[in-house]
Amino acid sequence: MSGPEESRMNRKLLVVNPDQCLEAQFEQQITIGRDAFNALCLQDPETSRSHAIIFEQEGRTILKDLNSRNGCYVRGEKTPEAILQPGDEIIIGSTVLLFDPPEDLDLDKALTKRGKFVLEKRAKRPSEHQAPPTAFTCEEVDGAIEKLFSEPDKTSFFSLTNAVMLLQAVREMDRAAHSAGLFECAVRHALRILGGHRGVVMESDEGKDHLKVRSILAADDTKTIVIGQPVLRVVLGAEKCVYCANIHRDKNFARLVAKDKRPIFSFVASPIRLGDELFGFIYLDAEDESISYDYASMRSLYLIASHVGALLRARPMHFSRHPAAHSVARPS
């Protein structure tokens, strides 16, 4: 028999689209809307910026409409609030979701008449199925973090668990005695928080022509990692944060399907910057659908990368491209 803590784990929503189904996992709550600050961001013009929230209360999972423009439907009926049961269909805007569907899901039986109608309607409008943005400038992510502090009531930037794990990561990175320890700590905590099979910190030379591995961790203890050119062009060339939930579905990174012994299913990467200068980047990837990185994953990795950059600025004597003489003013 599962206890109350276990019952709050591994909740999931299946986002049903005509051409694919995507899974979003959450613990105690998840906010849903068109705004990128939601835990589940829907690229749906009929969805309000802050549309709905699903949360646990006294052992029940509740969906609450947040005064959205088009309302919420549960089991085919419009409702401002509903107690959810596993397998329940939810319609938000023109997006169909299933709450905690069974492993042996029969989609045709799970959908109501309204859900099938909404799905068929979307299938007739292919222009809606353009891939959502997967790359963001550091300034855009900085803006997202700033909004967290200026308008906290309008965002669900972190779950409590995520926030605590990030604070633990920051504290341990602060204690690193040298850059090698800092990089190892950053990769280890990034994999712990976000999941994945491989993680690496790479340093770039000033011309972005050469890369050097500064720390690497992998589930199979490998000491090599392959990063596709499309990823390098974005994170290193354009200096943008980037994620891909499923390379088989994302046209921007469809060519990344690996044919060697280490396949790639999902990845996330963030530049590491020393002020206005690029140091390199931190990169995680996953081999299979057990891990699917999203916008929230990218923001968390960006915070880790930003802290690495801040600590490197404070400790430039450990940064190989900067001579020690330029780091600290020493008394004569």
List descriptors.
disordered N terminus, 332 residues, six-stranded antiparallel beta sheet, alpha+beta, 17 strands
Question: How would you characterize this protein structure?
Answer:
With 332 residues, the chain is of the alpha+beta class. It has 8 helices and 17 strands. It has helices spanning 4-7, 107-110, 113-123, 138-150, 160-174, 179-194, 229-237, 295-314, and strands at 11-16, 21-26, 29-33, 40-41, 52-57, 60-65, 72-74, 77-78, 81-83, 89-92, 95-99, 135-137, 198-204, 211-218, 240-244, 266-274, 277-286. Strands 2-1-11-10-7-8 form a 6-stranded antiparallel sheet. Strands 12-15-16-17-13-14 form a 6-stranded antiparallel sheet, sandwiched between helices. Helix 5 (160-174) packs parallel to helix 8 (295-314) and helix 6 (179-194) packs antiparallel against helix 8 (295-314). The longest helix has 20 residues, at 295-314. The model is unreliable at 1-8, 127-131 and 315-332 (pLDDT under 50).
Topology:
Blueprint: H1 4-7, E1 11-16, E2 21-26, E3 29-33, E4 40-41, E5 52-57, E6 60-65, E7 72-74, E8 77-78, E9 81-83, E10 89-92, E11 95-99, H2 107-110, H3 113-123, E12 135-137, H4 138-150, H5 160-174, H6 179-194, E13 198-204, E14 211-218, H7 229-237, E15 240-244, E16 266-274, E17 277-286, H8 295-314
